[in-house]
Amino acid sequence: MVFIKGGVVLLINSDEVERLVGKMDLGLIYIDDQYKIRMFNEKAKEIVGIKLNNIGSHSAGKLAQGDIVIIADNHVGGDDGDLTYLDLERINIMDDNIKQGDILLAVGVYNNYDIKPVYKYIRDNQLKDAFSLENHYLGNDIRACIDRGNKRIEIEVNSKKFSLQYFQTIGHIVIIDGLTGDIKFFQEKGYSIRKEEVATLLRGSSFLGKDDKSPSPSVKDFDFMQMFEDSEITKNLASYFKKESDILSNGLYYLNKRLVYCSFYVHSENAKKKGVYLVIKDGSELEDYLIDRNEILEQIEKKLRYGEVLHKEVPPDTFNLFAGNTPETTEVKYLAYKASQTKFNVILTGENGTGKSLLAREIHNSSKRADAPYVEVNCNSIAKSLFESELFGYVGGAFTGANPAGKMGYFEAANGGTIFLDEIGDLPLEIQVKLLYVFQNKTIYRVGSSNPIDIDFRMIVATNLDLEKEVEEGRFRQDLYYRINVFPIEIPPLRERKGDLYILINKLLKKFCLKYDVELKQFSGEALSKIMRYDWPGNVRELENILERAITLCSTNIIYPEHIKIKETRSNNTFKEMLAAEEKRIIKTCLTRNNNDKSKAIKELDISRSAFYEKINKYGIK
Predict the structure, then answer these.
(1) What is the 3-state secondary structure of 9-78?
(2) Is the dihedral of CA 423, 477, 246, 438 positive or negative?
(3) Bridge partners of residue 8, in order along the sequence
(4) What is the CATH number of domain 2-50+218-281?
(5) Are 276 and 238 in contact (CB under 8 A)?
(6) Which of 231, 377, 442, 589 is most buried, judging by how many CB atoms fall within 10 Å of its CB?
(7) Each residue of 561-602: pLDDT tens digit?
C-alpha cells in the first residue's frame, strides 16, 4: 500500500496504519474509490457518535401508545429528522403556529388525544438566555432546558439527567414507558447514523438498544456518502474521486453533526487513486474553551447581582487608554483583562468607532506577551489579490513584481506575540480556509514555497458585522467562526455609555492640545451640554474628529457651542426624557440579569408590582 503525505511516499500495510493511529488515540476511516467504508476504528466510532458512552441502558424497541415523550429541540426542522407540526400531533400538540426554526420544549403522550400536552416554543431570534420547561406530568418530575450559552440541551426525568452538547442544531428526546414508568429511550450523540431522530421515532421507526453488552455497530462496507449524506467532506471526496479536484484540505469538518479535525491521506497504486484515509480528532476542545469562557461570564453576573465592583479586580495600571467608568465600560474592561490572562482567541464586536483596535492593543499590553510583537492588520484595506502574500509572505520570484529577496508576512512578523485582524468579516472565503489551517497547525507557507514555517501567536479579531448572519448567508465559514468566537467581547456604542463622555472629552482634549502644541482648552457649559445631547452615531471616532476640529477653530482657551459642528436635531432629549431612557435601561438590565423572572426583578428594584408593570407597558419592554 502506498501512503502519501506532503509528497512523501511511504510503503505501509493497512493493519500497521490502524495500529499506529490507534496508539495516537485518533480516529481512522478508510474509504475506497467506490465510496465504501473498508476501515472504521473504535475511536472514530466514538468521535462521530456511533459508539455510545453507555451513560445508561435500555432495550431496543419503538414508541407505543401511552408512552410519555419529552422533546427539547433548539431548531425545529433542523437535526431532528425534519420535524413538523404534523409529527407533533402524535403527542396531541395541535398547533400549526410552530414553525421551522423555532425552539421547542414539549411533553406529551404518544397516540392519546385525551391527555393534554405541555409545551412552549419561541422564535430563535428572540432567545438569549436559557429556555426551560418544568412540569410534574403524570407522576413524573420533568425538566427540559436549552442553554445556548453553554451549547447544551438537557432533559431531566425524576432527577436523572440526559444531556447533549451541540454546536449547531440538535433534537433531543427521552421516552418514558407508559406501562412501567421506566426510561424506554434516551437520545445520544450519533443518533443520525442510527436513524433515531425525533421525527423518525414519532413516525413509528424502531430504535436500537443501549447496554454494555451491545457491541458498537459495524459500518464496514457501508456507503460513506449515504451514511454522512450531504456534508462538506462527502462533497470534497466526490470531487476528488471524479477528478474534478486534486486537493483535499485538512481542517475542521462535520461528521454526523460532530465537529472534527480531519487530515486526509491518499492511497494510490501505480498512480491510480484507490482510496482515502481520514484521520480524525475530536473537536471537543472548543467545548472546553466555551465552558472556561462561560465560567468567567458567570463570575461577572454574580458580582453584578450582589453589587460587587468589577474594576477592583482589574489592576489600576491597565486599560487606562480605554477611558470610562460606567458599568458598561467597566464590564468591557473586566472581560478584556480576563481575556488577557488566558490564551483564548478573542473577538471584539461593536459598531465602527467604538474602540476595538484600542482595546485589542490594551489586551496585548496586559498579557504575558506584552514585550513580544504586536501586529495590527486591517483586512478591508488589503486588495483581494494580495491577501495571501500580505498575511503569509512570499519568496523571491513568487510572482511578477515580487521583491527578489522575498517578504515576511504579517503572521510571521507576529511570531511570539499577538496578531490583531480588524474587520475579519471582509476576508475572502479562499483566505478563510487558509486562515483556519494556520489556526489548527500554527504553521504557514510563504507564497511560492513548500517549506513550512512554525509560528506561535495569540489571535485577536474584530468585526462590526453580525458573523452568525454572515455564516448563515454563506459569506463566512462556520468552522472558522467557531474558532474565533471563543471569547467574545461586545463594546457598546457611545450613546449607551454617555456617562463616559466627560472623561473621554477631557482625555481627548489633553491629547489633541499636546499634539498641536496649543494651550490646554476647556469646554463652556453650553458646549458640554451640546455634546451630551448628541447621540454620536460615529462613536468615539466621530467624537475625536469633532474635538480635533473644535481645537483647530478655537483661538481662545474656552470652547463654545459654535466650535462644535454637529447636528443637534439628531437628538434633543429633555432631562425628563433622559431619565426615562435610563429607567428603561435599568429595568431591562434587571430583567436580563434575573432571566426575565419578573418577581425577582420587582424584589431587586424594590418597587410595587403595579408600578413595575406600569413601567414595562409604558416603555414597551417585552
Answers:
(1) EEECCHHHHHHHHHHCCCEEEEEECCCEEEEECHHHHHHHCCCCCCCCCECCECCCCCCEEEEEECCCCC
(2) positive
(3) 5
(4) 3.30.450.20
(5) no
(6) 377
(7) 888 888 754 444 566 776 777 788 788 778 767 767 888 888
322 secondary structure, DSSP code: S
d(C-alpha 284, C-alpha 261), whole Å: 10
Is the separation of the CB atoms in 257 and 192 below 8 Å? Answer: yes
User: Do 33 and 224 form a contact (C-beta atoms < 8 A)?
Assistant: no
β-pairing verdict for 418-422 and 374-378? parallel
Dist. CA 423–CA 376, nearest whole Å: 11
The predicted-structure confidence for 251-278, as pLDDT tens digits, reads as follows: 677 776 667 778 887 877 777 778 888 8
The residues near 88 (Cβ < 8 Å, ≥ 6 apart) are: 95, 98, 106, 108, 202
Copy the grid coordinates of residue 371: 514585550
The DSSP-derived string for 87-127 is HHGGGT---TT--TT-EEEEEEETT-SSSPPEEEEE-GGG-
**In Å, what is the CA distance from 462 to each residue of 240, 355, 357, 395?**
35, 10, 8, 29
Task: Report the C-alpha gap between 319 and 233 in whole angstroms.
Answer: 44
Alpha helices in 137-279 (DSSP H): 198-202, 224-228, 232-241
What percentage of the chain's residues is helix, strand, coil (to nearest 5)? Answer: 35, 25, 40
Q: Mean of the pLDDT values across residues 219-235?
A: 73
Name the residue type at position 512.
F
Distance CA 477, CA 436 (A): 9
Q: Which CATH class is domain 286-490?
A: alpha beta
Q: Among positive and negative, which fits the CA dihedral 339, 343, 349, 353?
A: positive
**CATH number 3.30.1340.30 given to 494-570:** no
Q: Using CA atoms, how far apart are residues 319 and 337, in angstroms rounded to an integer? A: 8
Q: Which residue has the higher pLDDT, 284 or 264?
A: 264
Residue whose C-alpha cell is 426551560: 132
Nearest to 18 by CA among 40, 45, 34, 49: 40
Q: What radius of gyration do the chain's Cα atoms show?
A: 29
Angle at 585 between CA 598 and CA 312, to 5 degrees: 100
Whole-number pLDDT of residue 203: 94
What are the structural domain ranges in the chain? Answer: 2-50+218-281, 68-202, 286-490, 494-570, 575-618
Distance in angstroms (rounded) separating the CA atoms of residues 80 and 202: 11
